[in-house]
Amino acid sequence: MKRQHISDAVIRRLPRYYRYLDELHAKGVVRISSNSLGKRMGITASQIRQDLSCFGEFGQQGYGYNITALRAEVGHILGVDEKHRLIVVGAGHLGHALLQNFDFVSSGFRLDTAFDVSPALIGSTINGVLIRGINELEDYCAAVHPAVAVLTVPKAVAQETAARLISLGVRGIWNFTNMELTVESGIFVEDVHFADSLLTLSYRISAAPQLEKESS
Amino acid sequence: MKRQHISDAVIRRLPRYYRYLDELHAKGVVRISSNSLGKRMGITASQIRQDLSCFGEFGQQGYGYNITALRAEVGHILGVDEKHRLIVVGAGHLGHALLQNFDFVSSGFRLDTAFDVSPALIGSTINGVLIRGINELEDYCAAVHPAVAVLTVPKAVAQETAARLISLGVRGIWNFTNMELTVESGIFVEDVHFADSLLTLSYRISAAPQLEKESS
To answer: Tens of pLDDT along B19-73?
Structure first.
């Protein structure tokens, strides 16, 4: 398949496509039109057709998209079938919550182990995942070569921990530390910004009564 | 100020504008051109000018944007100065992590209290915030009228807890439960989808070596 340059905006939308297609697939829906998919996702049908055309031809005029095929292909594009190895660094409350509740497997990752500095946690398991001491990180990475690290350490040690992970061959960091990390090119950082989402909610509840007042 | 219909895509970008402007403001930067801001944010200068023009005129030709003024205005649009009251419902690991680390104040919310069912937690404080028993919810809401609830309860009780909160006057739900909530119109739910962010990272580390191979 010929892969063209894909814009950042399209890449950002792909996980949402995957999520919606995955839900439809789980419900046993067989096909969907770009119109119906657009309505569910709150984007236009033409946007959908344009986005998905970057990756080849999935839809058929008058039939719509075959959900099983499209889900598999979007998943493939996202690398869900690559089973990248992943570690969690920091098993405090946030790390614990992710280990307990987040489905790493259905996002295409293999979660091996977690690391922490706390003697109270080292050697215990959360949801079947062993917590190792952070001093085991070097040996572990040399043996297993994890591609991605979930960074859930305190802000104060975020940058040094990221640098250490990168020096050990980690290529992607899922960053929950609220610190802007400085990394070399070829390393990918995906920041989780809780505030962006809460501010969107703030906007909606602030704007709602105001719009009512304005239209009255 | 006349407020026009604002598209969902613009609303989604506003918190990012606010975050970047807030960082620049904290660093003492006084003004910035749409070009420089665009480069930092990874969007085009014309997109920025178009987005911000929805809310009035902020930029000056040849001068750029005054960061203090623009940050204040974007914050105002987002409702950051409204100090909506917020409660956290569910003080397990994720709720605990948010109570401990998330800066609700700088997102414009007043965090009063949290609720949980666990006798071990009720009566304790996290970061100065009191955890109350969930059976106090009705009396508390009747007295204090919180506008927003952070929903960090187990998936199995997500929908019923949301319905209970809405019946008590809560208008916005920041939903961490990974459940699609059904709510009446006029109620706003902002879902936090961790997987979307991780899948973006999966795409990047999967695509990187592939693109190298293709270009070689």
So the answer is: 999 989 999 999 999 889 988 887 888 888 888 887 666 666 677 888 998 999 8
Complex ipTM value: 0.87
One domain, residues A57 and A136: no
pLDDT digits (tens, 9 = 90+) for B126-143: 999 999 999 999 999 999
| Domain identity same for B72 and B173 | no
Specify if A193 maps to a domain.
no
Q: Which of A16, A171, A206 sits opposite B205 (nearest CB)?
A: A171
Q: Which of B35, B27, B99 is nearest to B62 (CA)?
A: B35
Q: Do A79 and B203 touch (CB under 8 A)?
A: yes
Contact residues, chain A, for B100 at CB < 8 Å: 93
Rounded to the nearest angstrom, the minimum Cα separation between B55 and chain A is 13
Q: B107: how many CB neighbours lie within 10 A of its CB?
A: 24
| CATH number of the domain to which A27 belongs | 1.10.10.10
Domain count, chain B: 2
What's the pTM? 0.83
**Cβ <8 Å between A109 and B79:** no
A165 domain-assigned: yes
Claim to verify: residue A171 and residue A108 sit in the same structural domain: yes
For residue B153, give the CATH number of its domain.
3.40.50.720
Same domain, B191 and B121: yes
Do B40 and B123 have their domain in common?
no
> Of A77, A103, A126, which marks where a domain is finished?
A77
Token pair for residue B197?
């962010």
- The residue segments making up the domain with residue B25 are 8-77
Q: Bin A81: left if φ > 0, else alpha if -120 < ψ < 50, else beta.
A: alpha
- pLDDT tens digit string along A137-178? 999 999 999 999 999 999 999 999 999 999 999 999 999 998
Looking at the structure, do residues B66 and B168 belong to the same domain, yes or no? no
C-beta atoms of A203 and B96 within 8 A: no
**Which residues, in sequence order, are bridge partners of residue B111?**
B86
**Structural domain contains residue A91:** yes
- Which of A205, A210, A211, A212 is the mutation pick for testing B, counting most B CBs within 10 A? A205
Which amino acid is it at A203? Y
Strands (E), chain A: 31-32, 59-60, 64-66, 84-89, 109-116, 125-126, 129-133, 148-151, 172-175, 188-191
- Contacts (Cβ under 8 Å, ≥6 apart) of A189: A162, A172, A173, A175, A181, A183
